[in-house]
Design brief:
Elements: H1 6-14, H2 34-67, E1 74-79, E2 83-88, E3 93-97, E4 125-130, E5 136-142, E6 145-148, E7 150-151, E8 154-155, E9 166-169, E10 175-178, E11 186-187, E12 210-215, E13 219-224, E14 229-233, E15 239-242, E16 248-252, E17 256-264, E18 268-272, E19 278-282, E20 285-289, E21 302-310, E22 316-326, E23 331-334, E24 338-345, E25 350-356, E26 362-369, H3 370-376, H4 379-383, H5 389-398, E27 407-408, E28 411-414, E29 425-435, E30 440-442, E31 447-452, E32 463-468, E33 475-481, E34 487-493, H6 494-497, H7 503-517, H8 519-524, H9 530-533, E35 539-543, E36 545-547, E37 558-560, E38 568-577, E39 580-581, E40 586-591, E41 603-610, E42 613-620, E43 626-633, H10 634-637, H11 643-660, E44 670-671, E45 674-678, E46 686-693, E47 705-710, E48 725-727, E49 732-735
Parallel strand pairs: 16-22
Antiparallel strand pairs: 1-2, 2-3, 4-5, 5-6, 7-8, 9-10, 10-11, 12-13, 13-14, 15-17, 17-20, 18-21, 19-20, 21-22, 23-24, 24-25, 25-28, 26-27, 26-29, 29-30, 29-31, 32-33, 33-35, 34-38, 36-37, 38-39, 38-40, 41-42, 42-45, 43-44, 43-46, 43-49, 46-47, 48-49
Helix pairs in contact: 1-2
């Protein structure tokens, strides 16, 4: 098929002059050909504008591909007079224009014939959509209907091993599409299977695949012509992050620690460090070695390690972490009565192996603040008449509890019950004792082994949250943690989030709701642990979805309800360890799209009740429209914030039920007038009958219509099965 060129179409328009009938000399002054020339000039202008539009469409198709490519990020958006320039992390740019209704202000959609004599149609719109497999595929919208863009019967991926479609206009003025870079092409067809004419559209170009571009500092929101919104994180093309790095890391003399570094756009680095420390950064790894004990007199015992990094254009920034070096206080200490081998010291714990010289002797092990022992000795600690350790041991023996508090024989991996304070000097205290009928007395000297807990380990945990595939009730978010700590994540309405005084208050409430829900399992039966309720690694969640934690076979981790249309939300993540928030809150803001009915059909619902049976008569204003009719207990319906959210919830559960029954979603659709009966419902119970327009793909096309009805009787029972209906969402039934 011959391609469109301005030259060919201009030649075609000039040929129109040949159609002008010959004129006699006597009539030449009476003939006015200005209108014909005006039409030709208008056609030339339209053709020239059309060529610009084709080029712009293909530019924006390429930009659309890069926007959803996870290997490339958006680093900056600049608004221009008639559009936006998008800067990507691979040092490329794309310019897109502000969109208007329809390709050219909806030219030709008023039904006026085009140059081919058929009613005009909107220009085709190329878009993208994320399917259930998480992959982005190309779509095409013609005459307001959006479908997958197919080639050889297959959907076309947007990224990876994919094809970028090329739009053009052929020599006869019809829109074409190519899947091989323009070498070959085929005409685009409308809903009736007819080719779509570019010349049929009135008015100059101006079409854009994008309606608007907005950003909030965290994300960029691209609203497409098909009504969908693509959300991508706004990330600088110049940054560095030390992963899993604490605010302060404690070293022993001569110890080496390594950290993974994530960097983008960095051309040069300079490392700064305390004296006598060795620090190197290469190939994404930061290596830090503390000074040796032989150099401790001239070395800095603490300080800051920093990487100053520079971009190609001279921009600079820095990342830092604190370091401190201390003597290695692990190891073996031999005394006259005991050998103590400290095997591990953390910020709050110590582990030690203890071997007594007399294996039959009872002995006691504890920790004590070094400052208090140095100031007051051990006499008061051991011999106080009421609170002394020896008095305590005597009463433990008296009540048969001594085995739980005293040791006998060699002990491995001893650790105190209570946590120590980080960065504090202690003694590990060990002494033998004897107990008789009147008291407990010392049997050995008190052995004191000094140790110091490490500095507090505060990990600089952050979560990179990407929100995508946003619709009027759907969204997908991916949370990527900077470390391996367990964390909680979810979706929250912005209005609900802002009701809390601080991020910390929100996190405390979020954790409390988990604790309250699993109270018996967490604290009483102990069949559930916080490790089971939290996540590690990259997490992806889609709303709506039914999530069951892989470690919790008997418990629901959470049903993510449909979202509300035209509503601001946050996707949130924060570290949670042992039931306590353990990091700052990370959040990404986004807004759902507005619901736009694609059909004008309305529904009249009439109901009648006979005991526990409900008869429903549905009369649609458009007999061709397909729709869903569902009935649910009012108590279930009241759990939703809007009728649209309830309808979207019903679509979700209907799709699940269809899959389980090996049916298609379309099997549950009605059209035309229907009289339906739901039998054997709960007695004396309120129900909501809901009807909404819906396609066989599960796309809601109208506002839902609801009617309240109450069954008769006083016995709240229902048959386990009922003819003419199936279970839909919890508490609801679908008519079939």
């Amino acid at each position: 098929m011959e391609k469109f060129t301005v030259r060919k179409l201009l030649a075609w328009s000039s040929a129109l002059l040949l159609l002008v009938p010959p004129l006699s000399a006597g009539c030449s002054d009476d003939y006015d050909d200005s209108k014909l020339w005006q039409n030709i000039d208008d056609l030339k202008a339209r053709i020239e504008e059309l060529e610009k539009q084709v080029g712009q469409m293909n530019t924006e198709i390429g930009a659309l591909r890069k926007i959803v490519d996870e290997s490339v990020t958006v680093v900056r958006v600049e608004q221009q007079t008639d559009g936006y320039t998008i800067y990507f992390s691979d040092n490329t740019t794309a310019t897109i224009r502000n969109g208007r209704d329809g390709a050219n202000g909806k030219p030709g959609s008023d039904g006026k014939p085009g140059s081919d004599g058929r009613p005009g149609a909107d220009a085709p719109v190329i878009g993208v959509k994320q399917d259930a497999d998480g992959v982005w595929y190309w779509t095409i919208t013609t005459d307001g209907r959006t479908e997958w863009l197919m080639a050889d019967g297959q959907k076309l991926r947007v990224t990876g091993e994919s094809v970028t479609p090329v739009i053009a206009v052929d020599a006869e003025g019809y829109w074409t599409i190519s899947f091989d870079g323009g070498a070959t092409s085929e005409r685009i067809l409308d809903a009736d299977g007819n080719p779509v004419s570019a010349l049929a559209q009135e008015g100059a170009g101006g079409g854009s695949l994008f309606v608007s571009v907005t950003e909030d500092g965290n994300n960029v929101y691209f609203e497409l012509r098909d009504g969908s919104i693509i959300t991508v994180p706004l990330r600088s093309d110049f940054y560095m992050l030390i992963r899993k790095a604490p605010e302060v890391s404690t070293f022993v003399y001569g110890e080496t620690q390594t950290y993974e570094v994530e960097a983008v756009g960095v051309q040069k680095t300079v490392v700064t460090k305390p004296d006598e420390w060795k620090v190197a950064y290469a190939e994404g790894v930061l290596t830090i070695t503390a000074p040796t004990e032989a150099h401790k007199e001239c070395a800095d015992s603490e300080g800051t390690v920093s990487i100053i990094y520079f971009s190609a254009n001279g921009q600079s920034d820095a990342v830092s972490m604190g370091v401190v070096v201390e003597a290695d206080m692990t190891g073996k200490t031999e005394g006259e009565d005991f050998t103590v081998d400290i095997t591990e010291i953390t910020d709050t714990k110590i582990k030690a192996d203890i071997t007594p010289a007399d294996g039959s002797m009872r002995y006691y092990v504890s920790t004590a603040l070094k400052s208090e022992i140095d100031a007051n000795g051990t006499d008061g600690l051991l011999n106080h008449p009421t609170n002394g350790l020896l008095s305590m041991l005597y009463f433990y023996n008296l009540y048969g509890l001594l085995d739980g508090y005293a040791q006998q024989g060699a002990v491995s991996n001893w650790s105190p019950i209570y946590n120590c304070t980080p960065g504090t000097d202690y003694y590990l205290m060990v002494f033998g004792f004897e107990v008789d009928s009147s008291a407990a007395t010392l049997a050995t000297e008190v052995m004191l082994v000094p140790f110091r807990t490490k500095q507090p380990v505060v990990i600089n945990t952050v979560y990179r949250i990407n929100v995508s595939d946003i619709g009027w009730y759907t969204a997908r978010y991916t949370s990527v943690p900077s470390d391996d700590r367990t964390f909680l994540h979810g979706l929250v309405k912005k209005s609900a989030f802002e009701a809390f005084e601080s991020d910390e208050a929100f996190m405390e409430d979020y954790v409390k709701r988990y604790r309250d829900y699993y109270y018996d399992e967490l604290l009483i039966d102990k069949t559930v642990t916080w490790d089971m309720l939290t996540s590690t690694g990259t997490q992806t969640v889609v709303a709506p979805s039914y999530r069951r934690h892989e470690q919790l076979t008997d418990y629901i981790d959470g049903y993510v309800k449909p979202l509300l249309p035209d509503t601001e939300y946050y996707a949130v993540s924060f570290a949670c360890e042992a039931g306590e928030p353990a990091s700052p809150l990370s959040k990404a803001a986004f807004r759902t799209a507005a619901f736009k009915p694609s059909e004008s059909c309305t529904f009249r619902i009439e109901t009648s009740v006979e005991r526990q049976d409900i008869t429903v008569k549905v009369t649609p204003s458009d007999k061709r429209a397909t729709y869903i009719c569902v009935i649910a207990r009012t108590a279930y319906y009241q759990g939703f914030e809007s009728d649209l959210q309830y309808a979207a919830d019903d679509v979700f559960w209907t799709k699940l039920a269809a899959g389980e029954a090996q049916k298609s979603f379309g099997d549950y659709l009605f059209s035309g007038d229907q009289t339906l009966v739901a039998r054997d419902n709960w007695a004396a119970t309120g129900y909501e009958v809901c009807v909404y327009g819906c396609t066989a793909d599960g796309v809601i096309t109208t506002e839902p219509v609801l009617t309240h009805v109450v069954t008769q009787g006083s016995v709240d029972t229902a048959a386990p099965t009922a003819g003419g209906k199936r279970a839909a969402a919890p508490g609801g039934y679908h008519f079939e």
